[in-house]
Amino acid sequence: MKTTYYGQSTIMIETEGKKLLFDPFITPNPAAKQIDINALQPDYILVSHGHGDHVADLIAIQKSSGAKVICIAEIADWLNKQGIENVHGMNIGGGFNFDFGRVKMVNAVHSSTLPDGSSGGNPAGFVLYAEGKKIYFAGDTALTYDMKLLEDENLDWAFLPIGDNYTMGVDDAIKATRFINCNNVIGVHYDTFPVISIDKDDAIEKFIKAGVNIKLPAIGEETAL
């Protein structure tokens, strides 16, 4: 299993011969201008919530690839109205078995409105069960005690937002690692905009001091999970 980082919160996880793309925001991001979204060709697109910096390329990539979109029910309904029918709607607390493994939708504390002003339902995170591994994609979220519900999952990796302002910052993300009992973290949702810029060296030092294996990959960089 491996993941590739495409900036902001956009990641691709490749597992069981399938490509899972999370929160596609690439073309509006100057730092990701070298990425050709038509070359990605995911089998699935997982959407945590409706904000533009998570769905900007959703429709274009879905139409290019024919990928099945996994998202909360309100976003599924919105996509149906855009003419996209290959959608699997879920809701928080529910799980479903797909051909690559299982996905469970979990709580996130944030907001969710789609670019046209439509309701995006509730924000969410995902836990992926595949290849005997358990991967947590937190989405955009504050530190929340609901994360303690994942403490006994024995997570292998967690994708956590660290940019502050709109989501957890570094210090709260470190607290989150204790709540979820996971010491392997890939940081996301930072440096894309001035208000979420971070001191990467300082962030890495704080995570290491807390005993956390932290990775802040460059855009396009692959990481084995």
Automatic annotation (TrEMBL):
Keywords: Hydrolase
Gene3D superfamilies cross-referenced by the UniProt entry: Ribonuclease Z/Hydroxyacylglutathione hydrolase-like (3.60.15.10)
Protein origin, superkingdom: Bacteria
MF GO annotations: hydrolase activity
Presence of keyword rRNA-binding: no
Domain Metallo-beta-lactamase: residue ranges: 7-189
Pfam family, one: Lactamase_B_2
The keyword Transferase appears for this protein: no
Cross-referenced InterPro entries: Metallo-B-lactamas, RibonucZ/Hydroxyglut_hydro, UPF0173, UPF0173_UPF0282_UlaG_hydrolase
Entry's family note: Belongs to the UPF0173 family.
Full protein name: UPF0173 metal-dependent hydrolase ACFQZS_18925
Lineage per the UniProt record: Bacteria, Pseudomonadati, Bacteroidota, Sphingobacteriia, Sphingobacteriales
